[in-house]
Amino acid sequence: MLGSAQIVAFVPATDLERSREFYENVLGLRVTEVTAFACVLTAGGVTVRITQVDQLRPQPFTVLGWVVSDIEATAVELVARNVRFARYDGMSQDAHGVWTTPSGDRVAWFTDPDGNVLSLTQLT
């Protein structure tokens, strides 16, 4: 029923201007609308709605991620834009913070200004 419907991803934020700066200028998403309640962007044909919330307790899992063709190059570019990649105990991550899954996919995690966990994945 919804298999062909357009997806909208929602990400909570306590400061829309700070989040807009990060998602637009650091990550490179395109802003399509800004209201007092949300900053709407697009990435890869998907709408990402950064929604204003009064309080936020970031979750310990990924809330939004991107599939990239070259995870090292993307990580290096993001580090140059002051993004810090997460390191997790018990996971063998390379110098860029990239973990290789048992199937060979490669994943790296970072956070937005509110602490929401975001990821990059390079599929094999």
Question: Which word captures the global form?
Answer: globular
Number of helices: 2
- Write down how many β-strands occur, each being a DSSP E stretch of 2 or more residues: 8
Number of domains: 2
The CATH topology of the largest domain is given as 2,3-Dihydroxybiphenyl 1,2-Dioxygenase, domain 1
- SS strand fraction: 35-45%
Radius of gyration, rounded? 15 Å
Q: Architecture of the largest domain in CATH?
A: Roll
| Spatial strand arrangement across the major sheet | 1-4-3-2
Q: Give the averaged pLDDT, no decimals.
A: 97
Let me know the largest β-sheet: 4 strands, mixed
Helix content: 10-25%
Provide an overview of this structure.
- The chain has 124 residues and is α/β, with parallel strands linked by helices.
- It has two domains: 46 residues, 2,3-Dihydroxybiphenyl 1,2-Dioxygenase, domain 1, CATH 3.10.180; 63 residues, 2,3-Dihydroxybiphenyl 1,2-Dioxygenase, domain 1 (Roll), CATH 3.10.180.
- The protein contains two helices and eight strands; from the N terminus they run βαββββαβββ.
- The radius of gyration is 15 Å and the shape is globular.
- The model has no long low-confidence stretch (mean pLDDT 97).
- Pfam families: Glyoxalase.
Task: Give me some keywords for this one.
124 residues; 2,3-Dihydroxybiphenyl 1,2-Dioxygenase, domain 1; 2 domains; 4-stranded mixed beta sheet; 35% strand; globular
